[in-house]
Specification:
Layout: E1 2-6, H1 11-22, E2 26-31, H2 34-46, E3 50-56, H3 65-76, E4 81-84, H4 92-97, H5 99-126, E5 130-135, H6 148-168, E6 173-180, H7 200-213, E7 217-220, H8 223-232, H9 236-241
Parallel strand pairs: 1-2, 1-4, 2-3, 4-5, 5-6, 6-7
Bound molecules: NADP nicotinamide-adenine-dinucleotide phosphate.
């Protein structure tokens, strides 16, 4: 596959990109630090992938998005999939206390991710179709006291991605919405570790499978589908009492 990848430098994205590289995919890396992208490119090429381009793109700067996609398309020639794993996190307390941080998380995880998706969708559909895979979160499925600001960005993103899939699947755009549970990465370092927590390498194969199959919504690990079903069925008075 020819893949445009935003977020391959760390965490879940890095593990997914490594899986794609192992099977020989061509990957144009876009991200905010070109030196980091070059280090990731060397790692992916050592695994058997090829990285024809490393291109600057800052999810907090909308002006960088379209030029980055244009360069990635040019470098790859044909694009089969766009994968977006870049994102920002802030704890509920930090996001309540710091309006600038709140703005950054909402902008990166919702507004500008939507801009990346819109621009990618137009390009993929124009070329006859392809796959758009984006990481949202189980945190967007139900508001909780400890994560409703970050969760609100992810809820908006999940809602948007499901709508995109409804409207454009028949036009050839397969939108793949990934909802990870708690994954041990730099993003979650220092947070209390809940049950079913795992590492990026454990969920990367399921994400690649979802991309290959064009799965509409995938919880990773799969157990989170049932955990979230249970959490979504709790009445509000119970949610008010729970501190998680
Ligand atoms: N970890 C979890 O438990 C968990 C659970 C549910 C959902 N998720 C979601 O999964 C995705 C990946 O999370 P992760 O745990 O792998 O996080 P991570 O290890 O912190 O990696 C985040 C990635 O996003 C990139 N990024 C951050 N800000 C950026 C910006 N302004 N412009 C461009 N790239 C930027 C980072 O690039 P740099 O190398 O430049 O920093 C890095 O590649 C996120 O959307 C996250 O919300 C994570």
């Amino acid at each position: 596959m020819n893949v445009v990848f935003l977020g391959a430098t760390k965490g879940i994205g890095r593990a997914v990109a490594r899986k794609l590289a192992e099977r020989g995919d061509r990957i144009a890396l876009i991200g905010r630090d070109v030196e980091d992208l070059k280090r990731s490119a060397a790692d992916l090429e050592a695994l058997g992938g090829s990285v024809p381009a490393t291109i600057p793109c800052d999810l907090l700067d909308r002006a960088t998005i379209e030029p980055a996609l244009a360069s990635a398309w040019e470098a790859l020639g044909k694009v089969d999939a766009v994968v977006v794993t870049a994102g920002l996190f802030g704890t509920q307390d930090a996001l309540e206390a710091d309006a600038d941080m709140r703005d950054r998380v909402l902008t990166a995880d919702f507004t500008n991710t939507v801009h990346v998706c819109e621009a990618s969708a137009v390009r993929l559909i124009e070329a006859g179709g392809g796959t758009l895979c984006v990481l949202s979160s189980v945190s967007g499925d139900r508001p909780r006291k400890t994560a409703y600001l970050y969760g609100a960005a992810k809820a908006g993103l999940s809602f948007y991605l499901e709508g995109l899939d409804l409207k454009y699947r028949d036009a050839g755009l397969k939108t793949v919405l990934i909802k990870p549970g708690f994954i041990k990465t730099g993003m979650t370092e220092g947070l209390p570790v809940p049950p079913f927590a795992t590492v990026p390498e454990a969920i990367a194969p399921a994400i690649v499978r979802a991309i290959d199959r064009g799965t509409g919504v995938a919880y990773v690990p799969g157990i989170w589908r049932f955990v979230m079903l249970a959490i979504c069925s709790l009445p509000k008075f119970v949610m008010r009492k729970l501190n998680f």
